[in-house]
Amino acid sequence: MNNRRRWFVACAVILFATVFVSGQTSQGKLAFIVSMENPGSHTYHIVFRCEGLRGATQTFKMPAWSPGYYGIMDFAKNVQNFRVEDGNGQGLKWERATNAWKVQTGNNPAVTLHYDVLATSTFVANPYLGEDRGYIVGTGIFLYVDGLIAHPVTVEIKMIPTWSSIATGLDRLSPDQPHILTAPDFDVLYDSPILIGNLVSLPPFEIKGVPHYFIGHRLGNGFDREKFMANLKAVVEQGIAVIGDIPYKHYTFLGIGAGQGGIEHLNSTTVPFSGGPALDTRAGLIRQLNFLGHEYFHGFNVKRIRPIALGPFDYDKANLTNMLWVSEGFTSYYSYLMVARAGFSTREEFLDNFRREIAAYENNTGRLFQSATQSSWNTWSQGPFGGRGKGGISKSISYYSKGAALGMLLDLKIRHDTKNTKSLDTVMQTLYQKYYRELRRGWTDEEFRSVCEGIAGTSLQEIFDYASTTMEIDYNKYLRYAGLELEKPTQLAEPYLGAIVENINGKPVISAIEPDSPARKANLATNDEIRGMNGGPVDTASLSAAIASKKPGEKIALSLHRSGKDLQVEIVLGQKMQRSYKILPLPNPDALQSAILLDWTRAR
Ligand SMILES: [Zn+2]
């Protein structure tokens, strides 16, 4: 209790300090001053003072994207009124490139840039300025000097008088200058958003002496704040226990009010949060803890345990990786584990997370078209939750859902093959120690697999094939390692073909075939054009109506056009199955199955 009160007081000092040092410029050779005199105009004014530059020209760049959100944002388009002057206030010539400004500095070591940034979007990956708050996403506000990403930098926030507080993962220059922030380099600056306004703080907590804050704009009412933070602490503790280390000096949850999505950062995360009485309900609390646990665990998985493409970042272009099914999917997997290990969800509630993830994946036609590795790679072009093909059929999957399911399979496989002496936790600890702590880099796809297989002591070919192909997943094989299996499917009276047929330019074309389906048995093939049915013409609507009118076991005859040839195929329709994907315990588990099930969600 004492510690908590002490940190609350320290936090309050930072939050409510309003004293500014007038006329003082920031320390350091690269220093920003951010002002926002008229927040209703959604415009930040930025002064960027650079000292100690060398060379006749300098290139200043705005990142094209922001860590944690895998899409090109083109932040440079929001920059207005750019000008630059030398140490004597003389204007310097510059020219614009795609996301860069090339300045003729004429060997001047000191130049000052002035520019405005229009910040109108309230989306979590964009900077925003409005009447009630400012939210600075560094990649959309701060230019960097090309070649000086590793240079220390300071940011002075010139607050408007009616705003009292700044919340960020960045350090303060000094306790009595809470509005001057420092970063050891631009990577840290870009991975540390800054929230400004009349912010409020939920009661902070400490873990092993490290303070954790939850500060935000409009955090909402109607819930027990002390209890909520005690619950969050219990979940965070389970995240830390997976790795056995705390890699930051302080951590901040930044609440930006109502909204969608959260983004992880180095020692902070930005989350939509609006409190409310739902947090005092069991389901509402578990949902919120799963969400916050996910964002928090990213502090390990993706920020430190990371694919080699995800840091150091290239801010000019997409940073492609096959491994977001691990970075995102396993993070979801761990959030479910953390909430269960902290004692908030029962075994049934814990397993129900996987029913939901598996159903989302299995009920999506995209699983027949896209692997988890492709989904990771393509996210930059198709967005984090995929998209649809021309025929209106989903041809992409979510690496969140498939990744969470594969995380579970991998964990159960390692536990089984090591007689429950090792687990996915061992993999995460090993990746953290070897690649983050010792080698200080990300891992390659091969290194990731090699660590997993080294710990399992066996081949994990099948699981990695599940990740890199669209092959059907045998969930029960892995669930049985913990004495579990999927609920048996029930047979419906409806007929089943098992071919995905798309309307391509008015013609029905087979775009995918389900494994073990009547369509497969009849040797239907992808790209077959269906030109007729039972001797008459056909389109996608009449095809599905005809199938629906049949009974399982009845036949349909299709005229197909394949690779320039016509052929006739007769298909015996199967029986549609209804699958709940509910995970149930097996009767009479053996000792190892029982031990794995028990240990899996046990508190660490
Ligand atoms: Zn995530």
What this model shows, in words?
By secondary structure, this protein is an alpha+beta fold. The chain contains 15 helices and 29 strands. The strands form 8 sheets. A 7-stranded mixed sheet has the order 4-7-2-1-11-14-13. Strands 16-17-18-20-19 form a 5-stranded mixed sheet, with helices on both faces. It has a 4-stranded antiparallel sheet with strand order 5-6-3-10, with no helix packed on it. Strand 23 (499-504) and strand 24 (507-513) form a beta hairpin. Helix 4 packs across helix 5, helix 5 runs antiparallel to helix 6 and helix 6 crosses helix 8 (399-417). It is globular. The two termini are 23 Å apart. Mean pLDDT is 93; it is low at 1-28. Zinc ion binds at residues 294, 298, 328, 331.
Throw out a few tags for this protein.
single chain, 604 residues, alpha+beta, seven-stranded mixed β-sheet, 29 strands, binds zinc ion
